Each structure stands twice: as structure tokens, then as C-alpha cells.
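Service request form, structural biology core

Requester: graduate student, group of Dr. S.
Request type: structure prediction, single chain
Budget code: on file
Notes: please return the result as C-alpha cells.

Sequence provided:
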Amino acid sequence: MAELPETFSPNEIPEDERSFDLIPQGNYDMQVIETSIEPCNGGEMLKLTMEIVNGPYANRRLWDNLCIRHSNPETQRIAQRALADLCLATGIAQLRNTDELHFKIFSGRVGIKKADQKQIDKGYPDDRNNVR
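Core staff response, request fulfilled:
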């Protein structure tokens, strides 16, 4: 537990215009702002946090998980192709450290993925954005 230097009153903080509604499909200028590699079922996943950099959706974030090493060759192929596309879009000829992806503006296509039964069963019934 941490003691705050003063009493924090959430009701005194003004509302902001943040929204978690779906971003409309389309092309947006964005950048990768965070990356990590974590284990996943069958391999390793590159987790990406991206941020739209301009327009009415500036500062909105999107996430993608790429299973860059996976026991299923098709899953791995799809993820590595997506990573290759990201490298090409950001001008990276060879990638050794994911930090090299950070803060390089690229044009990405935002889509909408419909919730499937597996997501609904896990308690995530809403459609979500994806980056292609």
C-alpha cells in the first residue's frame, strides 16, 4: 500500500473526451509505442501497442499479438508476414530488437473483427479493432 501525499477526490477531476468506441475502418498514420515478447500456447508472441498519431482519432491505441514462433506453421507464417509488413512500412531492413519499431510513423489499415463464439464464451462479446 502507498500513502498519497494528499487526498485524491475523483469527482474533482474533469471528464475528458476519451472513448473506447470502435475506430472506423480505414487507413491511419500510426506508430508502435510499446513491444514485448511473451510466451503463448505453442510458442512466443510479439505484443504490439500502436497509437494513431493524427486526425480525429489521434492518441487512440490499438493492440496486436503476433505469434512469431509457434508450433503451428500456418500461425507462425501469418504472424511473421505481418511483422515483415510492419518492418517494410517502417523502413526496417533487418530487425534485431523490437525497440527499433518504436516511434516510426507508418500507414496502417484498421479493420473491425466481429466477436466469435470463442471470445463470447470468454466474456468478450464486443467487436474489436484490428490492424492489418
